[in-house]
Amino acid sequence: MKETKMGNFFALLVIIISGFSIIKWKEYERGVLLEISDSLSVSKKKELKPSLDIVSKVSLLEKMALKEREKIRVMVEHDNSPFTSTYPMILDATTSYDPDLGDEIQYVWKQISGPTIELRPNPFVGKVSFEGEAGEYIFELTVSDNYGAKAKAIRTVVIEPEPNASPIIDVKVRQGSELN
User: Fold this and answer.
1) Considering the domain 71-160, what is its CATH architecture?
2) What letter would DSSP give residue 49?
3) If pLDDT is split at 50, 70 and 90, which confidence band does 19 have?
4) ω before 167 within 30° of 0 (cis)?
C-alpha cells in the first residue's frame, strides 16, 4: 500500500512538472512569435527605395515594351508557292478629322525606314497600300489643315516571313526485293 501511495505521489508530481513545463513553453513560443511579427512590421515600415539607375532602366524597358506593342505585326501566309514573298498592306487614316468644323485636311505619308516600297495610289491620300516583303517598315503620316496646323503620327508595320516547316522524314527498312 505504501508503494502505491508513493507511486501516486510521483505520478502527480510528474503531471504537475509537465503542466508547468508546457505553460512555460507556450510563454516562450508567444514571445518568439511576437518578436517575429514585430521585426516583420518594422521591415514593412522601412520601404526599400530603388536607386535612380534601376528606376531609369525600368522606365526604359517600359518604353521599349510600349513601342513593341504599338507595332502592327502580320505574317505572310503559307500558300505553297515559294515565289510569293510579299504581303499586301493597307494604311488607313481616313477617319482622321479636324475639330475645327469645315477645315479641309491633307495627308502626306512618308516611309522612314524598311525595305523600299511604293505607296499606292500615291502618298497624298488618306488610305494607301503597298506590297511588302518580310521586314520592319516605319511610316510617318502628317495630317494638316488648310490653315497650316499639323499633326504627325508614326506607325511601325512588321511583316514576318512566310512560315515553312522542314519536311518530316519517315524511312522504313525491311527485307525484300520488290523493286526488281
Assistant:
1) Sandwich (2.60)
2) P
3) confident
4) no
